[in-house]
């Protein structure tokens, strides 16, 4: 049976380390790291996400504000709020909860966020700095995956990592980061147009599933002993299900992360790190 | 014997198309696309590069200026010039010839260029926009390689492309672009830490050599029938030599680009396209 990579446990450990760093920051500076969360409309899932992020912030000693706007908010109104938060010296991180209502151009809003407060690392400037090996912030979910590998003692250097899915939020940045120092993996990025997918995934020492298809990765697609990180969070009749067929794959893999309790808790944790980083960048 | 992918011929064809587009632009606008080249110091190779870029500009009907600064130029002096060119409405593209002298922080200077005039696509914002699938400018050498594949009838969709070398200027952006629409290749990025390199390269339908090691890619590393694009330009006692052992590899490959006469002429050509793109963005 595979080693279970518990994101939940690793996140707990990281948050306890972070709480210490936050305490030191507060001691050395006249301010408390502060995250401003912006929530537009009434999506229940978004509501839960934002509440969890704020709770997590406060649990490590940081502050958070919620800016709740009605579903019919115009783009100009939202941009006005973003401009205000950009200028507010007490705010270190700005989180725009996605999705935004259809009348709003999400790209335009995300690009209006001051890159120095862009704790989701979605701003093109921050994406470019990451690609150039000089990141200001690391994108949260990819960073969480890398921490899970690192803290589970899984070597990446010279290993063949196969990333399934080329999304802007997970697969793409993770494929880039895995192939950079200090990770230095040989990385193959697969997607919907990849031919003979199982032939590729079976070569992976490290397999990242981030395609959003429940139980897509089956045991015959996995090399015996491989580490499998499952980024999928698919809502199904069986509840929350990952992109890998956990029961079957864990018979073959050397290590695997579960869903839930895997990548999910890591994403929020890395957002907290970025908020502290933002405060450090702006205050010190 | 392999089909020869002549960058020289493809570049000639592209430049003739470009000259027509430039003529149309000039007819429809009150201005001529204009590239400002900045050259600091006396490096003879840089001198040749800049001269060739300016000549190529003028050959397609665009204008170019040369700003030549002494080797002892300070960073502030260079930043002042960049700021002036950023503001000059007659200048559409700004090219900072690298390398810059050691007293100058190249990153800082490249980031000072107005992203709308950044025809080398080196600014983090432009790198980020590229990664997010909304490029303002395509980086010149990677774009040249993609045009060589396209205009040689080499299908990329679903094919396995292996990129050797993760440089910020070639390997990294090319690996990203190859895996995006419309190219949609399955891409593996290899580098100095890759284990069993030949095992990986032998799987490539398309092999890109961009590591800067003369004749590094040998025939036994290439799958019969593969397309090999050689980005290497290594100055050796034998003259300019690519990253592939051309004579031997061309016995195995289905198609191969030579050095010289391969990627080299394409890079300049794509810079010209970006200069016209910049003029379109700023004038229309």
TrEMBL record, chains A, B:
Belongs to the tetrahydrofolate dehydrogenase/cyclohydrolase family. It comes from the Bacteria. This is Bifunctional protein FolD. Pathway: One-carbon metabolism; tetrahydrofolate interconversion. Signal peptide: none annotated. Homodimer. GO terms for cellular component: cytosol. InterPro entries: Aminoacid_DH-like_N_sf, NAD(P)-bd_dom_sf, THF_DH/CycHdrlase, THF_DH/CycHdrlase_cat_dom, THF_DH/CycHdrlase_CS, THF_DH/CycHdrlase_NAD-bd_dom. Residues 139-280 form the Tetrahydrofolate dehydrogenase/cyclohydrolase NAD(P)-binding domain. It catalyses: (6R)-5,10-methylene-5,6,7,8-tetrahydrofolate + NADP(+) = (6R)-5,10-methenyltetrahydrofolate + NADPH; (6R)-5,10-methenyltetrahydrofolate + H2O = (6R)-10-formyltetrahydrofolate + H(+). Its EC number is 1.5.1.5, 3.5.4.9. One of its GO terms (molecular function) is methylenetetrahydrofolate dehydrogenase (NADP+) activity. NCBIfam families: PRK10792.1 (NF008058), PRK14186.1 (NF010783). NADP(+) binds at residues 165-167, 233. Catalyzes the oxidation of 5,10-methylenetetrahydrofolate to 5,10-methenyltetrahydrofolate and then the hydrolysis of 5,10-methenyltetrahydrofolate to 10-formyltetrahydrofolate. Keywords: Amino-acid biosynthesis, Histidine biosynthesis, Hydrolase, Methionine biosynthesis, Multifunctional enzyme, NADP, One-carbon metabolism, Oxidoreductase, Purine biosynthesis. One of its GO terms (biological process) is tetrahydrofolate interconversion. Residues 5-120 form the Tetrahydrofolate dehydrogenase/cyclohydrolase catalytic domain.
